[in-house]
Amino acid sequence: MDWAIAGVIVAIIGVILMWLFFYLPRREKVEVTYSDMSVQLLETNGTITDIIVKCAFSLLYSKGTRECYISETWLKLDMQVWKKLRLYFNKLPRWIGGIPCSEGLKKLERGKPQMFGIDFSSPISRVITDDERKELNELVQELWHHYRIGWEDTYGRTHCKTINQLRDIKRSFKSAM
């Protein structure tokens, strides 16, 4: 009876070791090496007409043995700020997505970062008063502080990275001093 239990344990350990040996080295790793987002309010004749969201980031394929293609990228806005902005812009989605290139797929090569970009604009839904203009400018400043970048690879896996741009700026100032 003891030999049967030991045999089962050795078999389970063998299966786990084989899985670790064959599966883990083939696993792909894609990292965000650069990210930047800008949000501006477009004004015409002193009145706000649109909000323009632009996001640029680069992905680096750093580990893996298979070819890696990106089929879709997206930008996810912070929930609290987005809810407040929805009062002013009805057509501002929380998930802003796009296909990275006109061909549909963009190949990532190991060690070479690839740039991606997402641009979106939404018209304003109502007239803004002077008090609301100040609040809206503050919301726009908050929007680029915290957001999420996501992408889907050709193997069907989705990846996300939360970007805290204000924290990154503070770190770069500390490292520069």
What does this structure look like?
The longest helix is centred in the N-terminal third of the chain and has 22 residues, at 2-23. The strands form 2 sheets. Strands 3, 4, 5, 7 and 8 form a 5-stranded antiparallel beta sheet that branches. A 3-stranded antiparallel beta sheet has the order 1-2-6, covered by helices on one side. 31% of the residues lie in helices and 42% in strands. It has 177 residues and is of the alpha+beta class. It has one domain (28-176): Immunoglobulin-like (Sandwich), CATH 2.60.40.
Key features?
177 residues, Immunoglobulin-like, 5-stranded antiparallel beta sheet, 3-stranded antiparallel beta sheet, 8 strands
Task: Please give the structural blueprint.
Blueprint: H1 2-23, E1 29-44, E2 47-63, E3 68-77, H2 79-85, E4 95-98, E5 106-108, E6 114-123, H3 130-143, E7 146-153, E8 158-164, H4 165-176
Antiparallel strand pairs: 1-2, 2-6, 3-4, 3-5, 3-7, 7-8
Helix pairs in contact: 2-3
How many E strands? 8
Pattern of helices and strands:
HEEEHEEEHEEH
Mean pLDDT: 82
Category by helix and strand content: alpha+beta
CATH architecture: Sandwich
CATH topology: Immunoglobulin-like
**Number of structural units classed as domains:** 1
Low-confidence stretches: none
Q: Helix share of residues?
A: 25-40%
CA(first)-CA(last) distance: 68 Å
| Number of helical elements | 4
CATH level-1 class? Mainly Beta
Alpha carbon gyration radius: 23 Å
Strand content is 35-45%
Biggest sheet layout? 5 strands, antiparallel
Q: Choose one word for the global shape.
A: elongated
